[in-house]
C-alpha cells in the first residue's frame, strides 16, 4: 500500500499502480466516450515524490466541488478529469468516471459520466 493510499484510506487498482510507468510513456493516448475521441493530457502518479500526483489533485478536486469518493487520476486535454469513483466503498474496486470541470459547478449530476466498470476495462479502451 502506498503512502497516498494510506492518506486517502483507499485501495487503488493494482493495474493503475503497476501500469503507470508504461501509461505515461505514451504521450498521445485517448479513449472514446459516446463516439467522441477524448485525448488524455496526463496521468497523475500514485507516488508523492512527484509534484503533481493523485493526492495533490484530489485536494484540488475537493476544492472544486467533487463528490466524496471521487479521486482524479488523469486529466484530458480540455482540463476535464478521469476519476476513480469509490461508490461501493473505499476498499472495493472503483469504477471509472469522466467529470466535466465546466459543468461540475452548474449541475454536478450532469457533469459526471460513467466510462468503465473497472480500471482494467478502461485500459482496454485506451488507444494511441
Any overview of this molecule?
The chain has 128 residues and is α+β, with helices and mostly antiparallel strands. The chain is built from 5 helices and 6 strands; from the N terminus they run H-H-E-E-H-E-E-E-H-E-H. The chain has a 6-stranded antiparallel beta sheet. The longest helix is centred in the N-terminal third of the chain and has 12 residues, at 14-25.
Strand content bin:
25-35%
Tally of contiguous helical segments: 5
Number of strands: 6
Could you tell me the radius of gyration in angstroms? 13 Å
Helix and strand pattern: HHEEHEEEHEH
> What best-fitting shape do the alpha-carbon axes yield?
globular
Average pLDDT across residues?
85
The parts where pLDDT drops under 50 for at least 5 residues are none
Strand sequence of the main sheet, in spatial order?
1-2-3-4-5-6
- The helix-and-strand class reads alpha+beta
What is the terminal-to-terminal distance? 30 Å
Percent helix among the residues?
25-40%
Summarize the structure in short:
By secondary structure, the protein is an alpha+beta fold.
Key traits:
single chain, about 130 residues, alpha+beta, six-stranded antiparallel beta sheet, 5 helices, about 30% helix, globular
Topology:
Layout: H1 3-8, H2 14-25, E1 30-33, E2 36-43, H3 54-63, E3 70-76, E4 81-85, E5 95-99, H4 108-111, E6 112-116, H5 119-125
Antiparallel strand pairs: 1-2, 2-3, 3-4, 4-5, 5-6
Amino acid at each position: 500500500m502506498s503512502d497516498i493510499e494510506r492518506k486517502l484510506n483507499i485501495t487503488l487498482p493494482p493495474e493503475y499502480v503497476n501500469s503507470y510507468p508504461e501509461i505515461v510513456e505514451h504521450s498521445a493516448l485517448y479513449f472514446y466516450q459516446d463516439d467522441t475521441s477524448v485525448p488524455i493530457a496526463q496521468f497523475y502518479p500514485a507516488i508523492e515524490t512527484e509534484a503533481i500526483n493523485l493526492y495533490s489533485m484530489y485536494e484540488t478536486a475537493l476544492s472544486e466541488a467533487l463528490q466524496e469518493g471521487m479521486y482524479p487520476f488523469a486529466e484530458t486535454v480540455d482540463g476535464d478529469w478521469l476519476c476513480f469513483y469509490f461508490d461501493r466503498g473505499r476498499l472495493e474496486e472503483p469504477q471509472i468516471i469522466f467529470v466535466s470541470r465546466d459543468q461540475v459547478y452548474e449541475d454536478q449530476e450532469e457533469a459526471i459520466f460513467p466510462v468503465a466498470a473497472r480500471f482494467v476495462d478502461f485500459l482496454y479502451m485506451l488507444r494511441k
